[in-house]
């Protein structure tokens, strides 16, 4: 009985070694690696829930009078895609949008982070971003002038680009 257990254990160990050797990574030369392709792009989604304790504006020319925006909150859904595009493609996008200047002329690939336009998709209002301020106070007072909110902030169609230089 013990002999059979030892044999089974030895066979299992041998099979494990063979499987690990078969799946081992092997180094590739640069010229071989340049021929490798795969799925491009990455998608990112986040449900924002940000609370900023307060934002204070102080007028230093008027006895340091100040106004406080308390408990600023931003929440809602934001989704983005990340793709690598060529410098030529970026140049065409830049030209089409009317942006000029040598700074915006990369010779290399560009990382594009985009919030999909998805105009064909109707998102419910809670899925869009909202920003609110719980109270607005002046000076050292705790009495509030009220509160404010910006609702259904729609960032779809926004893009950001990054490249090395």
Descriptive notes:
- By secondary structure, the protein is of the alpha+beta class.
- 22% of the residues lie in helices and 39% in strands.
- It contains three helices and six strands; from the N terminus they run H-H-E-E-H-E-E-E-E.
- Strands 1, 2, 3, 4, 5 and 6 form a six-stranded antiparallel beta sheet that branches.
- A hairpin with a 5-residue loop joins strand 1 (42-59) and strand 2.
- The model has no long low-confidence stretch (mean pLDDT 73).
Kindly state the number of beta strands. Answer: 6
Q: What's the helical proportion of residues?
A: 10-25%
Number of DSSP helices?
3
The residue-averaged pLDDT reads 73
- Backbone CA Rg: 28 Å
What is the end-to-end distance? 69 Å
Question: What spatial form do the alpha-carbon principal axes imply?
Answer: elongated
- Quote the beta fraction: 35-45%
Low-pLDDT segments, ≥5 res = none
Oligomeric organization of the protein chains: single chain
Biggest pleated-sheet summary: 6 strands, antiparallel
* SS class: alpha+beta
Order of helices and strands: HHEEHEEEE
What are the main properties of this structure?
3 helices, 6 strands, elongated, 22% helix, six-stranded antiparallel sheet, alpha+beta, 165 residues
Structure summary:
The chain contains three helices and six strands, in the order ααββαββββ. It is of the alpha+beta class and 165 residues long.
Summarize the helices and strands and which ones pair or pack:
Elements: H1 2-22, H2 30-33, E1 42-59, E2 65-85, H3 87-97, E3 110-114, E4 129-138, E5 148-153, E6 159-162
Antiparallel strand pairs: 1-2, 2-3, 2-4, 3-6, 4-5
